[in-house]
Specification:
Helix content: 40-55%
Structural class: alpha/beta
Number of domains: 3
Strand content: 15-25%
Order of helices and strands: EHEEHHEEHHHHHHEHEEHHEHEEH
Distance between the termini: 27 Å
Number of strands: 11
Bound molecules: zinc ion
Largest sheet: 4 strands, mixed
Radius of gyration: 25 Å
């Protein structure tokens, strides 16, 4: 049985490969990032100037990593551990062990773009000392590299810092805006404003890109839209659940299975109820959890007369009724599972992603939780 501890919270993001560790923080590569690198290697290596281009891309990767490490570094000064840094094609993501208070979020977020400005400043400073003239402009960034790698990296860092400081989700600037607004307005409203800005930014970038045939901009706008929507759902979820105990959202009426029940009994329950996960009991003790997938697998492999005890999952997630709902969100969302609510080893409720989203819906319409 799993308890809600740092152990299972630190389960890595799905679809990523562990690459290396830096300053004690594991850095993982998302599979889309690996695909992008493979694509670039196949299409660009062996051409003239590909050495410089590879160096430029490496410089961008290191810059993006420094950006995330800056977030992680400031977070660790506030005694918040970074669970992992995940690298995506359009940047990285530092996943922290807990959500930040607005005053913490402000500094942790600002550190990222500050790192990019520092990289650009260091390169331009070094060029000034060496009396090297700046020979390219911002518009040369997308052209295939013909050298001037350092300058390109410096300009790219300036651009990344500027983009990230735009006050809209999912950019760092959106978080800064939200943090600043939440000093004077309720957090939920601050989140909505930053999210609205993100969608407006995505729409204007997308339209501009379409009108002026800048397809890359349309592509980028699409990711901004996705990020704004996701970030909003996540932060609204956190805002609406923060400080509310798990007990307020849990289901208290549900069906259970006995350890002597068969897969056929479970399948009948699956059909006759809207429940998809069933606690398996031995007397009044929970011994496992049988989900819809496990049930179907057992049905296909062992037939309807097999016992549920052989098909159930013994590693279910157990939460305490007083645990903070906001802290359990990432756990449920990532695992896509259901958690059992246990009080003194007694099963008192269940929490599924379905009933959680209903709870959030009711909260959005102003229903106060029965605590
Ligand atoms: Zn950032």
């Amino acid at each position: 049985m799993e308890r809600l501890t740092a152990l299972n919270q630190s389960a890595p993001t799905v679809g990523t490969l562990r690459a290396f560790r830096i300053g004690g923080v594991p850095v993982r590569l998302h599979f889309t990032f690996i695909l992008l690198v493979a694509l670039l290697v196949v299409t660009d290596l062996g051409h003239e100037g590909s050495g410089a281009f590879a160096l430029y891309l490496l410089g961008l990767f290191v810059s993006a990593l420094l950006h995330e490490m800056a977030h992680a570094g400031v977070a660790s000064r506030m005694r918040v551990r970074t669970l992992e840094i995940v690298m995506f094609p359009i940047g990285g993501l530092a996943r922290l062990e807990r959500r930040l208070r607005p005053s913490e979020e402000l500094w942790v977020t600002l550190a990222g773009p500050a790192a990019n400005l520092a990289v650009a400043g260091a390169i331009f400073g070094w060029m000034a000392v060496m009396r090297q003239p700046v020979t390219i402009g911002l518009t040369d960034l997308l052209a295939p590299s013909d050298g001037a790698v350092l300058q390109r990296i410096a300009f790219a860092n300036l651009l990344v810092a500027a983009l990230n400081l735009m006050p809209a989700f999912p950019m760092d600037g959106g978080r800064v805006l939200r943090a600043l607004l939440s000093f004077v307005r309720p957090e939920e409203e601050a989140t909505r404003v930053a999210a609205w800005m993100g969608r407006m930014l995505a729409i204007s970038m997308g339209l501009y890109g379409l009108v002026f045939s800048e397809l890359l901009l349309v592509f980028f706008a699409f990711f901004v839209w996705l990020g704004a929507t996701q970030e909003t759902a996540a932060s609204l979820g956190r805002t609406l659940t923060n400080g509310i105990p798990v007990r307020a959202a849990m289901m208290t009426e549900f069906h259970k299975l006995g350890h002597g029940d068969t897969v056929r009994d479970a399948a009948n329950l699956l059909l006759s109820t809207s429940q998809q996960d069933f606690p398996v009991m031995n007397g009044d003790q929970v011994i496992g959890l049988l989900g819809r997938n496990g049930l179907l697998r057992a049905l296909a492999q062992e037939g309807p007369e097999a016992y549920v005890a052989g098909a159930m999952d013994r590693d279910f997630i157990a939460l305490e009724p007083e645990a903070d709902l906001a802290e359990t969100l990432p756990l449920l969302a990532r695992a896509g599972r259901c958690a059992l609510i246990m009080d003194d080893n007694q099963l008192i409720g269940m929490l599924t992603t379905d009933n959680l989203s209903e709870f959030l819906l009711l909260r959005r319409f102003g229903m106060e939780p029965a605590v």
